Amino acid sequence: DAGVIQSPRHEVTEMGQEVTLRCKPISGHDYLFWYRQTMMRGLELLIYFNNNVPIDDSGMPEDRFSAKMPNASFSTLKIQPSEPRDSAVYFCASSLGLAIKVQYFGAGTRLSVL
Amino acid sequence: QKEVEQNSGPLSVPEGAIASLNCTYSDRGSQSFFWYRQYSGKSPELIMSIYSNGDKEDGRFTAQLNKASQYVSLLIRDSQPSDSATYLCAVNYGGSQGNLIFGKGTKLSVKP
Question: Which residue has the higher pLDDT, A75 or B31?
């Protein structure tokens, strides 16, 4: 398997622009997670899905952030409008089942909002 | 508020020594525990998982779990410069929740 695939790897945008991050989980995995990592706050869970359904979005910072999972092989995280404080590395991860909870991470998207 | 605490470091050890990384967690309902390694600029990768009290060994790595004291540790024997990375402790609280709570990580530096 190719692992969790994220795109783009790097994104530079200007404040106020819309940003869309993409993720393809490992085939067969039924959980998908979006994280944000910064030096100050570490790795923070933003939202996670089970079988394409959002389960917990309490980590989403504010209404400017939204996430969707239209099918089992694709998810997006959208920021509109973007702000400089959104600059971070955004990771997508996927896992299988309830019992084990081992998460496999994508390579991440480094977002810079100028 | 479920929390996972780690000493941020940096922890510096000489090559060949044992590196000891510690993690405490707040909720006694925790069921699964993981150690992830993250090299600078890379994504976290799983190196160890542990589910029951005691020790679990995998090569140079040993994970230790003490649920009564609510701590998890990771020992790295014969530390190598290639072990220099940030180590993240992650805890799952079980039930229907799928998510992990991550600590902020301990930065390990192994000096040649």
Answer: A75
